[in-house]
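Mods, move this if it's the wrong board.
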Amino acid sequence: MKILLLEDDYNYNESIKEYLELLGYEVDAFFDGESALDAIMQKCYYLFLLDVKVPKISGHELIQYIKEANITTPIIIITSLVDIDNIAIGYELGCNDYLKKPFELKELELRVKELIKKHYQTSTAGEFQLGCGFIFNFETGDLRKGDKIVSLTSKEQDLVRFLIRRKNTFCDIELIRENVWEGKEISYADIRMYIRKIRLKVDEEEFIKSSRGLGYKIDVIV
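Not the wrong board. C-alpha cells:
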C-alpha cells in the first residue's frame, strides 16, 4: 500500500517514512506542499499524512485541492497546531483523523491501520458492491455476481483495485499506467486490452465505464 507523507521537519519525515516502510508500506515523502500536490495528481495513494505548516502550499490548502479533484483517499493531519480552531478547520475541510505532535510511532501505526481498514473495508469481509450487480473482495481479489465467480489474473485484480480506490472518478490511461504498472514500460494499447479482457470476463461493457478524453472508472455503490 502506498502512502503519501508531507512533513517539512527532516527528523519527523525520516522517522515516519522509515517506520512505515518497516511495516511494509511504500512511502513517498515530501517536504513542501507543491511537490506533494504534483504527486497526488499523478499517482494514487491509500492514505495521505499531511502536516499543516509546510512551505509553498499548506496542508489545509492541499486538502482543498484533494477534495476539488474528487479524490476520496483518507487523510490524517499530523501537526503541532493544537488549538481548537485549527482542528476544526482540518475536519471541516475533510480530514479523517488528527494526530498531535509529538506522538509515538506506535500510535501512528495504530491510526494508519484503523483508518485504512475503515475506509477500504465496507464489511468485515472487505467487500465492495459495484455497478452491474458485482461484488469485489478488496483483500482476496475475488469478483462475483450472484453464483457467478469471475476469475481475474493478479494484474487484472490490481487494475480493479485501483479503479475502486479512485471510485466513481474517471482516471486517464497514463494515471492507470503509473499506478497499476508503477511506471513500467507498457503500451496504452496493452492497457486497453486488459480492460477489454475484464469486460469480456464479466460480460458487462459498463462494468468499467469509459469516456473519451477522461479515461475509465468503476462505479462503487457501497
